[in-house]
Amino acid sequence: MVTIERRVHGLVRYRKFWFPSRAQAMEISKSLRPDDVVRFFAVSPALDTLPHLVEQYRMHTVWINLSAGPDAVLDGMKKKSCRSEIRHAEKMVGRVAIEIGSEKANRDFLTVYNNFTRAKGLPGLCARWIQENSAHCETFVLYLDGEALCSHLLLRDPETNIVRLLYSGSRRLESPEHAAACGALNRYLHWQEMQRYYTQGFMYFDFGGISHLEESIARFKLSFGGTVRPQHFYLLSGLQWVARLGKFVNKRILRRRTFKPEDENWDEEPKETGHFPDARPHGGQVAH
């Protein structure tokens, strides 16, 4: 389990827990203080009735079993839309460099990611966010001929042996040439990440949320193989009015994301999905 904690304007103790077990979640929920706001992320299976529950929702993710080994993971990928693209990227390896978790990687991740989200009309991230969450997160940036092209930020949980993709961006929207290069190299970067985390003992690669199977982001993630599995998300508070205040503070006052992945936008209006009609949040939507 990964735990993130901070104070909101000195009033609220705001805690987030990724991948808690049933026992951990129940223990936390039964010991809330009046000034507590708590969120449980990516819980599976669903929890029983929780005290202090404000809202809950279910989403689906693409789950890759790294413990099977790199050969099995590679064999499980779709040949045309993924394996062939990775092989194509390997032919460019002499022009490619990958930076991981350094100050340069963090800086270039922010540049690529924020330009990408700006082009799509989505909120970006700031350097302080990465600094605050550096103990649990790692940035990957792929360079082609010295130019930062693809960037990813992943959450690591050594306790559960899960690594999850939180944010990704690329230069594919900037020009046709960038788009052509990003298709293969973005897959290549994910493949390098999977191999790296396998050698570190991680057992599962969590690609994050999908909604409709025909959406491009879902097709991209599913091209790596794996399985689609449900995950559950919960918001709790010692006092419900404090929870509502916490949502207002995060959205209107801080005006930045606080460890909220792009596929957990729970404070926006929901969008209906064709394939998983029961898998959307109450007051949230998948956003990519």
SSE order and pairing:
Blueprint: E1 2-8, E2 12-18, H1 22-29, E3 36-43, E4 53-65, H2 70-76, H3 79-90, E5 96-100, H4 103-120, H5 127-132, E6 137-144, E7 147-157, E8 162-170, H6 176-199, E9 204-210, H7 216-222, E10 227-237, H8 240-253
Parallel strand pairs: 2-3, 8-9
Antiparallel strand pairs: 1-2, 3-10, 4-9, 4-10, 5-6, 6-7, 7-8
Helix pairs in contact: 3-6
Specify the CATH homologous superfamily of the domain at 62-225: Gcn5-related N-acetyltransferase (GNAT)
Q: Could you tell me the number of beta strands?
A: 10
Tertiary shape = globular
Low-confidence stretches: 253-288
> What portion of residues is helical?
25-40%
Question: Structural class, from helix and strand content?
Answer: alpha+beta
How are helices and strands ordered from N to C? EEHEEHHEHHEEEHEHEH
- Spatial separation of the terminal alpha carbons: 25 Å
Counting DSSP H or I runs of 4 or more residues, the number of helices is: 8
Question: Strand arrangement, largest sheet?
Answer: 1-2-3-10-4-9-8-7-6-5
Which features does this protein show?
alpha+beta; 10 strands; 8 helices; 288 residues; Aminopeptidase; 33% helix
Characterise the protein shown here.
- This protein has 288 residues and is α+β, with helices and mostly antiparallel strands.
- It has a domain at 62-225: Gcn5-related N-acetyltransferase (GNAT) (Aminopeptidase), CATH 3.40.630.30.
- It has helices at residues 22-29, 70-76, 79-90, 103-120, 127-132, 176-199, 216-222, 240-253, and strands at residues 2-8, 12-18, 36-43, 53-65, 96-100, 137-144, 147-157, 162-170, 204-210, 227-237.
- A ten-stranded mixed β-sheet has the order 1-2-3-10-4-9-8-7-6-5, with helices on both faces.
- The longest helix has 24 residues, at 176-199.
- Mean pLDDT is 86; it is low at 253-288.
